[in-house]
């Protein structure tokens, strides 16, 4: 498994599916765009804010439950992609629970655990940045990638957006 982190959450409007871009930590710095529902993107974006203690979201509650278990959450894994649908799991010491990629990322961000991606998913769907660009910074590379995101749609990646 390869560690990734959320690099960008892009929402272009209600007609277009939001995309969350994961970037490979270390290695080639490949970027993995995952199209998802507006709710999934909002849950990931919401993980950057302090939770409302009086009215927590379901992802905040799930994160608190994951921390409270005798068997705490270790990591989230993006395990597969089939026709544009990404599959994931939340991994505990003695078990893994299947979940949607957006939910796995949202919970992982809330509890501060790593997000990992199966090498074969990054090999097939990851986008390699220009060789002279810093994969985590590079303003020119980021701008080119944003232009790419603006010009591409989920159907360009084997079958359409993730169904959430």
From TrEMBL:
Q: Which GO terms describe its molecular function?
A: nuclease activity
Q: Which residues cross the membrane?
A: none
Q: Which Pfam families match?
A: BFN_dom
Q: Looking at the record's lineage, which domain of life comes first?
A: Bacteria
Residues of the BFN domain = 1-129
**UniProt cross-references to PROSITE patterns, sorted A to Z:** BFN
What protein name is recorded for this chain?
A: BFN domain-containing protein
